[in-house]
UniProtKB/TrEMBL annotation:
GO terms for biological process: transmembrane transport. Keywords: Cell membrane, Membrane, Transmembrane, Transmembrane helix, Transport. It comes from Enemella evansiae. It is found in: Cell membrane. Residues 86-301 form the ABC transmembrane type-1 domain. This is Sugar ABC transporter permease. Coiled coil: none annotated. It comes from the Bacteria. Belongs to the binding-protein-dependent transport system permease family.
């Protein structure tokens, strides 16, 4: 009995050694594949975040060198009334940008209609702004909004509506830029929604149709809940991208636009601090505050998605 027990233990130990030796190559392969991605994240994301946090507690010279100042940069930032206005402007832009989500969803549903002719052409046209440089998009829309010869005012004139200078009027400048942001993001959102719509089981749609549900009711009560993960993903990236908007504001508004205080975003404050006033510590404080805002809103979205996102 003892010999049998010893033999069984030796067999078990040999099997365990074989399993360990078999798992070691797998672990090395995992490191090999994950290593480049992790290295990129560490170099281009983690280290800049750590460096920014460090600079936010220091006063950096133009030609190098830092002096520790504690929370002085944050105190100056929160005492500046421009921060409150910039946060309001950024919040309004983000709220308007979220209106593009249902618009993209409806367009994606129309493009997903069976038998639609020219579907590929429509998809390409909607996706063109995504592959176009933001500066080029901003310049074209700046000409469209021009108060003297812009296409927008000419179209309004056809219907007898008086035009206006859209980008120099504080009441319309932010809305005008938000419309451009929605238009530029439509292509990406439509592609994501199309991928979700094509994964909807056809049997469920047919069952809803047999129960008497019309096209609109099937869409809102069957299709939308089934693609709620796609809607959630689009909402997250829309909020993050909207909070980081800068290029549209910088190119479309210009430096001496009288409506700039009503359009200036948080990232624009970062630009002014870091590149206009050469205040690297103040710019780092703005960047870290924005990071915390994005992190907080993303966490809130992930918590709230448990109530309306269905993964089964």
């Amino acid at each position: 009995m003892t010999a049998l027990t010893q033999g069984a233990s030796r067999t078990a130990s040999r099997s365990a050694r074989r399993r360990r030796s078999a798992t070691r190559p797998s672990a090395w392969w995992a490191v090999l594949f994950v290593g480049p991605m992790f290295s990129g994240l560490a170099v281009f994301y983690l280290w800049p975040a750590v460096r920014t946090l460090y600079l936010s507690f220091n006063e950096a010279g133009v030609f190098g060198g830092t002096t520790f100042v504690g929370l002085e940069n944050y105190a100056k930032l929160f005492a500046d009334p421009a921060l409150g206005q910039a946060m309001i402007n950024t919040g309004i832009y983000t709220a308007i940008s979220l209106l593009g989500i249902p618009l993209a969803l409806v367009i994606a549903a129309l493009l997903n209609t069976s038998g639609l002719r020219g579907r590929g052409v429509y998809r390409v046209l909607y996706f063109l702004p995504v592959v176009t440089m933001p500066a080029a998009v901003s310049i074209v829309w700046r000409m469209i909004y021009n108060g003297d010869f812009g296409v927008a005012n000419q179209l309004l004139g056809v219907f007898g509506i008086e035009g206006r200078s859209w980008l120099t009027d504080p009441d319309t400048a932010l809305v005008a830029i938000s419309i451009v942001g929605i238009w530029a993001a439509l292509g990406t959102n439509i592609v994501i929604f199309l991928a979700g719509l094509q994964g909807v089981p056809r049997g469920m749609m047919e069952a809803a149709e047999l129960d008497g549900a019309g096209p609109v009711r099937r869409f809102w009560h069957v299709t939308v809940p089934l693609i709620s993960p796609s809607v959630f993903f689009v909402s997250v990236i829309t909020v993050i991208n909207s909070l980081q908007v800068f290029d549209l504001v910088f190119v479309m508004m210009g430096l001496y636009n009288p409506a700039m205080p009503r359009v200036k975003t948080v990232v624009y404050l970062f630009y002014e601090a870091g590149f206009v006033r050469s205040d690297q510590g103040g710019a780092a404080a703005v960047a870290f505050v924005l990071l915390l805002i994005i992190l907080l809103l993303t966490v809130v979205q992930f918590v709230m998605q448990r109530r309306w996102v269905h993964y089964e």
